[in-house]
Specification:
The protein starts with 13 loop residues before the first helix and ends with a strand. It is built from six helices and 15 strands. About 15% of the residues lie in helices and about 30% in strands. The chain has a six-stranded mixed sheet with strand order 5-4-6-9-10-13. It has one domain. The chain has about 260 residues and is of the alpha+beta class.
Amino acid sequence: MLYTFLFDGSESDPGMNMTIESVRNMQVEYGALEAQEDTDKELPDMTWSEVKDKVEDGAYVKLAAQYRTAEGEYLPVYSYLYKEMINTDAFIIAEGEDSSSLGKFSGAWFEGRYYNEKNVIEYGTTFEESLEEHNPVLVFRNFKITLPELGEGESYYYSGNWNYHYQISESGVCEGYVPFRYNKESDSWIAAYLSNAIKHKYADGTVENLDKSLYMDQITLTREQVMQMNLDYNRNVNPEEYYSYDGITEPGEWIQDE
């Protein structure tokens, strides 16, 4: 996409500063593009359930789109998807209906890459550049914290999106994807789901909220800490392994780039 028209009259709106020459150059550039040949076979239909079954706990996917860099280079578009479970005790799910949603990232950093509001990876974006727009979400998978030792038959868990109960292992590994959201008052990022309450389930089935003073410092990242974490380490690196939904290969084909 060469231009995004804002229709707000601002200087950054292409409609306010385009010239005959710029339109001509755009037409020449488009005319020089080589379209990929259509596949010689009709690709099968695809359902969201099939996508969720493919990505399962999480995987990169290649989409049927291209991203244009500031230098005019066209790059493939990737995202990251995962099956997000729904607590069927808290939400009514029709019999036979898939009790999961498709998880994705927006305005967030995960594994060294920035995901914009369209849920796709923004190639080359630095962490500092993302801060110019807003304070992005920081997502960590299988985040680990230290909690009091459990007794026999006891367990810890926390409620994520869709009120699904994610377990916390005896070694303190929190299942699922833990988002750290910006807190303006403390100028820090706090693990949203964990700060709501970590549940301590006893052997007899009773459940209590764990004292937050035991772990709040572990789920809080100061701005100084965040700036030292090298969160954009993969900003110029495309995923090497992914499921392809680019409209050319078989939907859901597993690709490993060399």
